[in-house]
Write a structure and sequence with these properties.
Largest sheet: 5 strands, antiparallel
Strand content: 15-25%
Number of strands: 10
Radius of gyration: 17 Å
Strand order of the largest sheet: 1-2-3-4-5
Number of helices: 4
Low-confidence stretches: none
Shape: globular
Helix content: 25-40%
Length: about 200
C-alpha cells in the first residue's frame, strides 16, 4: 500500500504539472483548459502533451517528472503558468516535483476507473479532467458527478455527487453533497453503484 503522505505529495506534483505545464500552455495556444485521462495518466484535450506514469510525453520525446514545472516546461518547449480563466491555484512553478511511481500509478488507475464509471452511467456525456481542482467530472440535470484524487479538504481519493441545490436525506454526507472514499470503491462496478445511488437520491422527491 502506498503511504498516504507519498500519495498526497505525488498528487500535488501531478496537479501542478497538469495546471502549469499542460492546461496553461494549452489555454494560451488553443483557448481550452480541459484535460482528459489517458493511458497511464492524463493529458490535454487538444494539446499533445500528456503524463504517462512519471514522465511527460511530448512530440519531441519523454522527460522525467523531476526538477520543477518551470524546467519541465522548458524541456517541453512551452511557457510555464496556469490558465488565466480562473483564479490562480497557487502552485509554485519553481517548487521541486516529487512523483512516486507507485502513487502515480494508483492515481492514474483511479482516473481510469472514474472515466469508465462515468461513461457507463452517462454514455452521452464526456467526462472532463478539470485542471483547477484536478478532478474528473461531468454534470447532468444540475448535479455534478466525479472522482477526485484528493484535495485540501479531503486529502485522499474519493468519489462524489454534488447537486447544484442542496438535498436532504441519508445519502448526503458532505457539505457539497455526498462522497465516498476511494478505497471503498475497488472497481468500476462499485463506483457505478455509488454514482447511481447519488443520481437516484438527487432526483427523488
Amino acid at each position: 500500500m502506498t503511504d498516504p503522505d507519498t500519495l498526497v505529495s505525488t498528487r500535488r506534483s501531478l496537479h501542478a504539472v497538469a495546471e502549469l505545464v499542460i492546461a496553461g500552455p494549452q489555454f494560451r495556444e488553443q483557448g481550452k483548459i480541459r484535460l482528459r485521462p489517458t493511458s497511464g495518466g492524463f493529458g490535454g484535450a487538444v494539446s499533445p502533451l500528456r503524463v504517462d506514469g512519471t514522465e511527460l510525453v511530448t512530440p519531441d520525446g519523454r522527460f522525467p517528472l523531476t526538477g520543477s514545472c518551470r524546467s519541465l516546461a522548458a524541456e517541453a518547449g512551452v511557457t510555464v503558468g496556469p490558465p488565466d480563466s480562473y483564479p490562480d491555484s497557487g502552485h509554485d512553478p519553481d517548487a521541486p516535483l516529487a512523483v512516486d511511481p507507485a502513487a502515480a500509478g494508483l492515481l492514474a488507475a483511479w482516473f481510469a476507473r472514474g472515466d469508465a464509471a462515468l461513461r457507463s452511467l452517462f454514455p452521452d456525456v464526456e467526462p472532463v479532467l478539470w485542471p483547477e481542482h484536478f478532478d474528473l467530472a461531468l454534470g447532468v440535470d444540475e448535479v455534478n458527478y466525479g472522482v477526485s484524487p484528493g484535495d485540501a479538504g479531503h486529502p485522499l481519493p474519493y468519489a462524489y455527487v454534488g447537486p447544484w441545490e442542496p438535498r436532504e436525506g441519508p445519502f448526503w454526507n458532505a457539505p457539497f453533497g455526498a462522497l465516498k472514499e476511494g478505497d471503498e470503491l475497488p472497481d468500476v462496478a462499485a463506483l457505478v453503484e455509488f454514482l447511481r445511488g447519488g443520481r437516484a437520491a438527487a432526483t427523488s422527491p
